[in-house]
Design a protein that fits this description.
The structure holds 2 protein chains of 2 kinds.
Chain A: H1 6-14, H2 21-27, H3 29-56, E1 59-60, E2 71-72, H4 76-83, H5 85-117, H6 123-135, H7 138-148, H8 155-162, H9 179-203, H10 208-216, H11 221-249, H12 253-258, H13 270-280, H14 284-317
Antiparallel strand pairs in A: 1-2
Helix pairs in contact in A: 3-14, 4-14, 5-9, 5-11, 6-9, 9-11, 10-11, 11-14, 13-14
Chain B: H1 3-12, H2 18-45, H3 49-52, H4 67-73, H5 78-114, H6 120-129, H7 135-148, H8 155-179, H9 183-191, H10 196-207, H11 209-225, H12 228-233, H13 242-251, H14 257-277, H15 279-287
Helix pairs in contact in B: 2-14, 4-5, 5-8, 5-11, 6-8, 8-11, 9-10, 11-15, 13-14
The chains are: A mainly alpha, B mainly alpha.
Keywords (chain A): Cell membrane, Membrane, Transmembrane, Transmembrane helix, Transport
Protein name (chain A): Sugar ABC transporter permease
Membrane topology (chain A): Multi-pass membrane protein
C-alpha cells in the first residue's frame, strides 16, 4: 500500500459515509502493524484493569486477596460509600483541594506568563528557574516542604515569629484547620509553572498587530488584555485548567507523604481514601467501587477535555 | 549616569507603564516563592544534625559541612551502599522505560499521523483518555496482575507500567512532530525505490529527532519521579527506586533532616540537569498538543 497523497486524503475526508468497514480493515491490515505493539501493551495494562475494577466493585473481597473467594453483593459497596459520613467530608476536601489548587496555580501562571511575555535580560533564566519545581519529583517536594512546615524547627514558623506575626512557631500540618491550605500551597508551588508555560505558548498566538492597533485606538492596558489577549487565550486556558484539575484530582504523593490524610482525616481526599481502603484495610471491593465513582467524574472532565481539544482542531481546519 | 542627565530624558518620556512594574514585582514574588524552599533545602543539607535542630534556626550554617553528602555517596558505608543501590535502580528503570517507550511509540505515532484506517479516531481518543485516569485506580488490579505474572518486586513490573502509562502522551507528542514533516519527502524516496520502511527509517526518523528527544526526556523524568507504583509493587530493599527508598530509609528511626535534604537534593540533580540542558525540547513537549491541536 502506498502512502496516501494529499488528494487521496482530501477525497477520503469528503466521502460522506464509510461503507465496508471490514473490507477496509482487511485492505489496510499492514497499517495496524505499526499500532499493534502499543495496542497490546495498553490492552494488558489499561483495558484489563479498568474491566477488573468495575467487576470487583460489585463484590465483597476477602482481606487475604484470594479473589476466588469473593462474594457478589450487587450495589452494596456503592451504597455504603455514598451513605457513609466520611464520604461527605472527603468529597468536600477533594473539592477544596482541586478547585483551590487549580484556581491559584492558573492565576499565578497567568500572571507569570503575562509578565514574562515581554523580552528582557534574564528572561530565559527566570523561566527555567520557575519551572524547576514542576520538574523535580513530588516526593522530594513533599519532604522539603514538610521540613519547612516542621512544628519546632520549621523555617516558615521561625520567619513568622521573626517578623512578629505570632509569638510561637505555627504547627501547620498537625492542625485540622491549617493542614489543607498548607498542602494546597505546596501543590501550587509544584504546578503553577505548568500553567505558566502553557499560557506563554498561548500568548505567542496573539497577533502583535492587533495589540498595536488597539493601542493606537486608545485602548489602555487592561482593555487590551481583556478584549484582545484574553479571547486568544481562551482555548489554551480551557485545556490548561482541565489538565490541572485532572492532575489535582489524581494527586496522591503530596497529601500521602506529608500527612497520609491526617490529622483526623482533615486532609483526606478521594485518592488517599481509596489507597487506605485498598492497601491499609485490604478491601479491594469497596475501594474498586470508590474508584468507579472517581472514573465517572474523570470521564465527565475527559469529555470536556476532548471537546476543548477538538474544537481547536476544527477552527484550524476552517 | 548622574541625576542631572537622566532627569530631562525621564520628563521627555510619554509615560511610565505601571503594568510593567506590577509585572516585575509579581515576578520577584514568584521567584522568592519558588527559590526559597529549594535554598532552604540546600542550606539544611550542609548543616550537621545538631545545627539543623535549633530554634531559632541558623539562617546561615555556622559550620557548613559536606558530611551528609559524603555519607550518602560513600560506597563502603551501609547508608551509602543503600542510597547508591536506589540511585542505580531508578536510573536503570527510567532508562529502559525511555528506550522501550521510543521503540513502541514511534511506529504508533507514525501510523496515527500518516494512515487513515477505520477506528483511528476512536483509538486516538482512547489513547488520550488514559491521561484522565488516576494511577491509584489502576493500582489494585495491576497489583493482582503483577502478582499473577510473578512480577511483584521486580523492575519488570515498573517498566511495564511506566511504559504503558507514558505511551499515550508519547504518541500524542510524536504525532505532532510527524504531522509537520512533509509527506512529499517520503514520496520522493519511494519513487527512488525505497520501501515504505526505508522511507520511514531514513527520511522521517532523522527529521523527527527533536520530537524523539522531547518524548524521551518526558518519559525519563516521569519514570524517575514516579512514586505510587514503585511504593506498592516493591517491598524488597534492594529493588527499590529512589522515591520509595529514601522514604523507608529515613523514617525508620528519628528523621535525620539534613541527611534527608541531602538525599532529596541528590535525587533532584539528574532531572534538573536534564531539564536545564534540554529545556527547549521539554517546553515544546509540554505545550505541543494543547496549543497546536
Amino acid at each position: 500500500m502506498s502512502i496516501a497523497t494529499e488528494r487521496e486524503i482530501a477525497a477520503r475526508a469528503k466521502r460522506p459515509i464509510r461503507f465496508g468497514v471490514l473490507r477496509q480493515m482487511v485492505d489496510r491490515r499492514s497499517d495496524y502493524l505499526y499500532v499493534l505493539p502499543a495496542l497490546i501493551v495498553m490492552m494488558i495494562v489499561i483495558a484489563y484493569p479498568i474491566y477488573y475494577t468495575i467487576e470487583l466493585s460489585f463484590f465483597n473481597t476477602p482481606s487475604n486477596l484470594q479473589m476466588k473467594d469473593k462474594v457478589f453483593i450487587g450495589l452494596d459497596n456503592y451504597a455504603r460509600i455514598l451513605t457513609s459520613r466520611s464520604f461527605r467530608e472527603v468529597t468536600m476536601n477533594t473539592f477544596i483541594w482541586t478547585v483551590a489548587s487549580t484556581f491559584f496555580a492558573f492565576l499565578l501562571g497567568l500572571g507569570a506568563a503575562l509578565s514574562l511575555h515581554r523580552e528582557f535580560l534574564g528572561r530565559g533564566v527566570l523561566r527555567a528557574v520557575l519551572l524547576i519545581p514542576y520538574v523535580v519529583s513530588a516526593v522530594a517536594a513533599s519532604y522539603v516542604w514538610k521540613w519547612l512546615y516542621h512544628s519546632d524547627f520549621g523555617v516558615i514558623g521561625a520567619l513568622a515569629v521573626q517578623f512578629g506575626f505570632t509569638d510561637r512557631p505555627i504547627n501547620f500540618i498537625d492542625n485540622i484547620h491549617t493542614v489543607l491550605p498548607s498542602l494546597i500551597v505546596v501543590n501550587i508551588w509544584k504546578e503553577f509553572s505548568f500553567a505558566m508555560i502553557m499560557l506563554m505558548a498561548g500568548l505567542q498566538t496573539v497577533p502583535d498587530q492587533l495589540l498595536r492597533a488597539a493601542q493606537v485606538d486608545g485602548a489602555n492596558a487592561w482593555q487590551r488584555f481583556w478584549h484582545v489577549t484574553f479571547p486568544h487565550l481562551k482555548g489554551v486556558s480551557m485545556v490548561t485548567v482541565l489538565l490541572l484539575m485532572v492532575a489535582n484530582f489524581n494527586a496522591f504523593i503530596i497529601p500521602w507523604i506529608m500527612t497520609s490524610g491526617g490529622p483526623a482525616g482533615a486532609s483526606d481526599i478521594w485518592i488517599t481514601q481509596i489507597y487506605t481502603i485498598a492497601f491499609g484495610r485490604q478491601r479491594y471491593g469497596l475501594a474498586s467501587a470508590y474508584s468507579v465513582i472517581l472514573f465517572i467524574v474523570m470521564m465527565t472532565l475527559g469529555y470536556f477535555y476532548v471537546r476543548a481539544l477538538t474544537r481547536g482542531d476544527d477552527t484550524r481546519v476552517k | 549616569m548622574s541625576m542631572v542627565s537622566t532627569a530631562p530624558s525621564r520628563r521627555r518620556r510619554v509615560k511610565i507603564d505601571p503594568w510593567r512594574w506590577v509585572g516585575r514585582i509579581f515576578l520577584l514574588f514568584l521567584l522568592t516563592f519558588t527559590v526559597l524552599p529549594m535554598l532552604w533545602m540546600v542550606l539544611t543539607s550542609i548543616k550537621s544534625q545538631f545545627a539543623a535542630m535549633q530554634y531559632p534556626p541558623q539562617w546561615w550554617p555556622a559550620e557548613p559541612t559536606l558530611q551528609n553528602y559524603a555519607k550518602l555517596l560513600d560506597p563502603n558505608g551501609s547508608t551509602g551502599q543503600e542510597f547508591l543501590r536506589y540511585f542505580w535502580n531508578s536510573f536503570y528503570v527510567s532508562m529502559v522505560t525511555t528506550i522501550l517507550g521510543v521503540i513502541v511509540a514511534v511506529p504508533a505515532a507514525y501510523a496515527f499521523s500518516r494512515f487513515t484506517f477505520p477506528g483511528r479516531t476512536f483509538l486516538f481518543f482512547s489513547v488520550l483518555l488514559r491521561n484522565m485516569f488516576p494511577s491509584v485506580v489502576f493500582l489494585m488490579p495491576l497489583f493482582l496482575l503483577m502478582r499473577w505474572m510473578g512480577l511483584v518486586n521486580t523492575h519488570g513490573s515498573l517498566i511495564l507500567t511506566y511504559l504503558t502509562f507514558g505511551l499515550p502522551l508519547s504518541i500524542w507528542l510524536l504525532k505532532g512532530f510527524f504531522d509537520n514533516i512533509p509527506i512529499q519527502l517520503e514520496q520522493a524516496a519511494r519513487i527512488d525505490g525505497a520501501t515504505r520502511f526505508q522511507a520511514f527509517f531514513f527520511i522521517v526518523m532523522p527529521l523527527s529527532t527533536p520530537g524523539i528527544i522531547a518524548t524521551s526526556i518526558f518519559s525519563f523524568i516521569g519514570a524517575w519521579n514516579e512514586y505510587v507504583y514503585a511504593y506498592t509493587f516493591l517491598s524488597k530493599q534492594d529493588s527499590m527506586t529512589l522515591p520509595v527508598g529514601i522514604q523507608r530509609f529515613f523514617t525508620e528511626f528519628a528523621t535525620d533532616w539534613p541527611g534527608l535534604m541531602a538525599a532529596t537534593f541528590l535525587m533532584s540533580v539528574p532531572v534538573v540537569v536534564l531539564f536545564l540542558v534540554l529545556q527547549k525540547y521539554f517546553v515544546r513537549a509540554l505545550t505541543e498538543g494543547a496549543v497546536k491541536h
